[in-house]
Automatic annotation (TrEMBL):
Pfam families: Metallophos (PF00149). Residues 2-207 form the Calcineurin-like phosphoesterase domain. InterPro entries: Calcineurin-like_PHP, Metallo-depent_PP-like. This is Predicted phosphoesterase. GO terms for molecular function: hydrolase activity.
Length: 226
């Protein structure tokens, strides 16, 4: 089985995955997956609390997958070695937690997922570079080009897209005009006309909302995909 949900922000919003709120999780195995749409937030400062949080995920019966958001320590995250996993590149955080890199196509239970994390922090003027925000939060040209190459291998057709933020038209639909300056949305715009997909899931906006037929913003809702 595969489930998907929104931002967890370290320990702040992870309670949705506790057994009391996610009863289905008790019956899962390590061959089942829970995907987090960015702002995982458990790779931040290497604290004792953070180690406890990662152990909490490792002890869960399922395997946790996440795309990066804008609230991640990218210096620490990118120190993990890159590995190949189910058709795409990952950072293996521990035995049960994997970071799905940008621009990858993964095959999980015969279903194709395209991943492209990242987003701009609108509050970065109040943060310190490489302390509480990181310039790597914005995808670069190489990641965009790798995405195109990987998608071409799959004839630009996937089942699901998982990102942190959303294309510009969807951001406008959510009336989040403060986020329209995000170059990540501009990159995602390029994928919209060339990709065939069933559904696009994203987080970032701290709401649970379906937009049109093919887009869903997730925060605390947990949706079963398979």
């Amino acid at each position: 089985m595969i489930f998907i949900t929104g931002d967890t922000h370290g320990g702040i919003d992870m309670k949705k995955l506790a057994s009391s709120n996610f009863a289905a999780g008790k019956n899962l195995t390590k061959d089942d997956y829970v995907i987090i749409c960015g702002d995982f937030g458990c790779i931040w400062n290497g604290s004792r609390e953070e180690a406890w949080l990662l152990k909490w995920y490792e002890d869960k019966p399922w395997t946790t997958l996440f795309v990066d958001g804008n609230h991640e320590n990218f210096d620490m995250l990118y120190d993990f070695p890159v590995e190949e996993w189910n058709g795409g590149k990952v950072h293996k955080i521990n035995g049960s937690v994997l970071h799905l890199l940008r621009g990858q196509v993964f095959s999980l239970d015969g279903v194709k997922f395209f991943t492209f994390g990242g987003a701009m922090s609108t509050d970065k003027i109040f943060r310190r570079e490489h302390i509480s925000w990181w310039p790597q939060e914005i995808p670069n040209r190489e990641e965009e080009e790798e995405a195109i190459l990987n998608l071409a291998k799959h004839n630009f057709a996937v089942d699901y897209i998982v990102t942190h933020t959303a294309p510009t038209a969807i951001v406008e639909y959510l009336n989040r005009f403060d986020r329209l300056r995000d170059p990540t949305s501009g990159m995602l715009d390029k994928f919209v006309p060339i990709l065939q997909f069933k559904h696009w899931y994203f987080g970032h906006f701290h709401t649970n909302r379906q937009i049109h037929d093919q887009y869903t913003c997730l925060y605390n809702d947990i949706i079963r995909l398979i």
